[in-house]
Amino acid sequence: MPEHISTLISATEALEAQKAPGASPLFVDCRFDLYDPDAGRQQYEQSHIPGSVHADLDADLSGPVGDGSRGRHPLPTPEAFGATLRDWGLHPGRLVIAYDAGPGMFASRLWWMLHWVGHRQAAVLDGGLHAWRQAGGTLTDAVSDVATGSFMSRANPDMTVDVHYVEALLEKVSYMLVDARDNERFAGTKSAFDPKSGHIPGAINHPYQSNLDASGAMLSPEQLKKQFARSCAGGVNSDTVMYCGSGVSACHNILAAVHAGLPWPLLYPGSWSEWSSHPDRSVATGG
Predict the structure, then answer these.
(1) Which listed residue (30, 232, 244, 251) is catalytic?
(2) Any catalytic annotation for residue 244?
């Protein structure tokens, strides 16, 4: 498998993989709408890449929200996520191709989670369904029967940090916190989803949309390096902490950094929705 397919796969490559003899890739439809949580499932039922299963952000890619103090999309337990992957028919070594409507925000959450539990044969469909259709890929409303898989999850705790880690960071002279939300949410001029507006003090803003070209495909590795160099003084490294609203679009920034050949950053899964849930945590605005 080409090295870049550990991050992205083009629609042409995905079509070739679908038609190749042997084990077919596992296509996972990750479409979701934060404003209309049922929309992704409905879109999947209307049409999807043949053989796809559907991943619901709330039900499959998140754990129980509880009282909300862990954020809007806390990670599920590795055991629960492993059971979901087996229900989807995942076996060790099988290529997973995650896709969504195009930008890759939701697909990148699945991509990151697969690496988190030890499945490295994973890629995001570059450009999503739009690119698939442009390349001549077909869609169907038929849902295939899925045989239970055998994958067993082994989570890597070193890929994430918790709120206490971030609180301790703020006591340091130098740290790199990168917020993937749009500039208005970062600056606190627009309120969405969470009780407070703004960002974690000391964070810098690198909206995940800046990783994409006009068609919704990922920029080249060299272009991504330049983008991160502009927004992240000193560049992205293995101590960089990526966050967003609830640990979703931050995964897109991680995907982009890894695709650019930069060190794998850390994820703060609770992100702003966890940070802002506590009245005593400091908040910064402006940007």
Answers:
(1) 244
(2) yes
